[in-house]
Write a structure and sequence with these properties.
By secondary structure, this protein is an alpha/beta fold. The chain contains 15 helices and 17 strands. Strands 5, 8, 9, 10, 11, 12, 13, 14 and 15 form a 9-stranded mixed beta sheet that branches. It starts with a strand and ends in a 6-residue tail after the last helix.
Length: 433
Amino acid sequence: AQVDGHRVRIPRELVRSLVATIPDEFDYHARNPERTVRVGGRNMIFGPAYGTPNLIDLDGVRRQATADDMRMLMKLHHVNPAIQYNGGYTLEPMDIPVPHRHLHMVEGSFLTTDKPIMGSPQSEFQARDCIEMARLVFGSERMDRDVVMTAIFNCNSPLVWDQTQLDAVRVYASENQALLMSPFVLYGASTPVHSLAATAQIIAEVLAGLAFTQIIRPGCRAVMGVAPMGVYMKSGSPTFGSPEVSLIMYIFGQMARYYGIPWRTNGAKSGAKEDDLYAGYDSILKVYPAILGGCNLLTHCGGTIEGSLCISMGKLASDAQQILGFQTLLKGVSFEDMETALADLARIGPGGHFFDEDYTRAHMPFLDEVQDNERYETWVAGGSKSVGERGCAWCRNMLERYEDESPPLDDGVRDALREYVVRREVEIPGELV
């Protein structure tokens, strides 16, 4: 490569030869083998929101998030059928010093869920702590072989991979854990205002990051990511659900398939301030293009509003229903049992109905558990509840369900994690930035 100060120009052939060693698919392992998922190919998995500092809680109060809130969302997503992996900063625990947050995040993830989890990418020492805590759960031999943790690494667009991120990349890559390399994109601010030109820039950025992972450890699992947002040109704040961003995701997905690398983007995000029409509008125009573009791993699928500054519990429930609907759509149609269904049609004949049929009861169509589809009078009689209120009720039901389905964790592992957190909180200065 040609190096001119801090600027590195990498020959096309070198980039292509390096990224060619990235596997096109891999298993993302969970504590519970039944929850292990496949990343890449024609597979798609969905994960929770990430790094949000505020919460509109189950009582409708907007406030800063705490470590208890973070663990509460981990519990909810453990039983949320729309979500296939868990953990990470489901909320930013604002009551814990920044240098210690990753310790509580990883410990909380292992204590509350047996789905696959995420680690912290924010510095070299945080990355090492996450790896060491995962090692307490899975063991060194298992971690050298299998992906048991992923982390998101953001390029500072345009064209900057900073030292802090690259130091953390070295840790995850050397330990053979999966890296989600993702330029953080504000279309029109950190990229040209041209969908193809912006995508060309993003592809260059992500390929440079992916190539770096393979220099550290050839064959380590990595994902080609993009975190695209628009810009509200009146103020510079991020926007979501824009047509230009949708086009970027379509093109990016095609390029990922061209290189044979799994790809990731972010999903149900919105600039809305409450659970209104535009909260749903923004989210669907982020999630649906990602699905149509063949995304393999979709992050931020759980309640994000205010441009990623807040999670609404009501919207989290609505997002879950929307994603479950999309997952049903993705299954497509099947010829299985078609003869049985047609036999019912022949027997019932003109003017009949199918409500009482055994096949109908055994194959109920998708039912949104948050939307109210009753008559207006019935809705009023039930208290005229808003979608946010119904969503919070759904979340409460999920948390009650968690109490019956919380996953076991070996007492020795639990104690080892707690001892590690206590020791590292003493060793790491709390005021470190």
